[in-house]
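Per reviewer request, we include the raw input and output of the structure prediction for the construct analysed in the revised manuscript.
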Amino acid sequence: MARTTALLAKLSQPRLYRILDRERLFEVLDGARGRGATWISGPPGAGKTSLAASFLQARKLSGIWYDVDAGDCDPASFFHYLALAAPKPRSARAQPLLALSPECLDLEGFTRRFLRVFYARLPAGAVVVFDNCHTVRTDAAFTKILKQVLDELPEGLGLILLSRADPPTTLARAEANGLLRRIGWESLRLTEEELRAIVLATHTASESTLAKLQQRSAGWPVGLVLLLQRLQATDSIPSAAAEGAAIGSLNYFADEVFEQVEPATRDLLLRTSFLPRVTAAHARELASSPNAAHVLEELFRQRLFTDRHAADQVSYQYHVLFREFLRSRASSVLTAEELHALRASSARLLEQDRDFPAAFALRIENHDWDDAARLILKLARALVADGRWLTLQTMIASLPAAQLERTPWLTLWLGA
């Protein structure tokens, strides 16, 4: 498979800009290196991804970053992408990483064999990171695979798992045996010293302002970013009484930030909000913005809820909460026709970039049933050949019954 922008972003470590090295948490991660795994859990905006990425950067560690998504409910898809993430074999005689074929009924045995070949390709000291583990259903085979990922982890390699939720019950024994350490939300909260270092790196603030920021943010990293944006724009920090709720009402603060940027930037943000990852080329086309590359880079450098993935082509990813806000705002300010056209254009760009899962999801959201069916037929043969029949089954099940009746080939592939 060609290494497309979407694939590289799924398998590439986020690039950091002005991130605080949190040594107190690095010590926990250091303690698990080579002797087990660390599960980092917390709400959106808690700094999970930043912590793991900054740890790898600070310790100069090589490894693999895997962005888990709902498609990994299909074990064959998970192994397909993990094989693409693996380094090339060190010799021509090395064992290949095989696909999970439909004939393989022993998932546990296949997983064990796959992981041993996979781990053998990694250099000593490497770390494997699985981000967004919460996006896969807890009843999916993925949770059982994670247990084997940890069980088969050889000495000298590290494993970090990031999630909004606690570890699944399949990892309970590993935690009881000390093979799985945890960094939870209370540990992720910014201490007074960490908040001070973050604020004073870019702002001049009095002791009373620092205390107010600590009290209002409650140690929530993304909350601190929102408050700093408000402080920079208005030279004030809203009180709890003025806001009417504890910080956590992201829409209120995101609205404050959103209204502070240039109208052209607001339009770019809205029109790219239906893309899971945005390139300058995407933004130029969707927002008719010739200056798109500069705008996206500035959003990243100003830490406006935008991460950057640098591979063959630079792409940007909005924080999940910010993207939800942007999509909601787009739905409220655009007409139904404009919204439908925007989603259709976004799906077309994703399809051109070979990000077929994201393109299909947008087609379904847009009720573009004919295009969704066309995309299934385009992918069906390759999905079956790769053993990813569960993914194909799920895609076909997303269509209304009337579409299945109009497209007999879908029934044929469902039978296959």
